[in-house]
Amino acid sequence: MGWMALADQVAEIEQEFIVTNQLGFHARVAAQIVKTASRFRSDIWLIKDETTVNGKSILDVLSLQCPKGATVKVLTRGEDAEDALKAVAELFQNKFGES
């Protein structure tokens, strides 16, 4: 099997989320996202409006400026993309441990 066939098998998954915690993305939330994303080998991208940032970079995540109510798309690509997306989804669903 050549490298092209292997490349076709790389999973890419995306899902949209609404930021529901009161303070939106701030330093602690960004740190949680980066810490979670860094556990996975897959690339993790956060997309808001026309801006795409690396989910493993705290400065990138903070630069998105996501207040409560913002829509963020999470795209994961790689061998553990499904698990990575589930882990990041759990952060959004639990409001990053905030109200």
Automatic annotation (TrEMBL):
Protein's cellular compartments:
Cytoplasm
Q: HPr domain spans which residues? A: 12-99
Q: Which GO terms describe its biological process?
A: phosphoenolpyruvate-dependent sugar phosphotransferase system
CDD domains associated with the record: PTS-HPr_like
Q: Does the keyword Zinc apply?
A: no
For this UniProt record, give its keywords in alphabetical order, as a comma-separated list. Cytoplasm, Phosphotransferase system
Q: Does the keyword Cytoplasm feature in the UniProt annotation?
A: yes
Q: Which domain of life is it from?
A: Bacteria
GO cellular component entries: cytoplasm
Show the InterPro entries listed in the entry: HPr, HPr-like, HPr-like_sf
Family affiliation: Belongs to the HPr family.
- What PANTHER family does UniProt report for this protein, alphabetically? PHOSPHOCARRIER PROTEIN HPR (PTHR33705), PHOSPHOCARRIER PROTEIN NPR (PTHR33705:SF2)
Entry protein name: Phosphocarrier protein
Naturally occurring in which organism (per UniProt): Desulfacinum hydrothermale DSM 13146
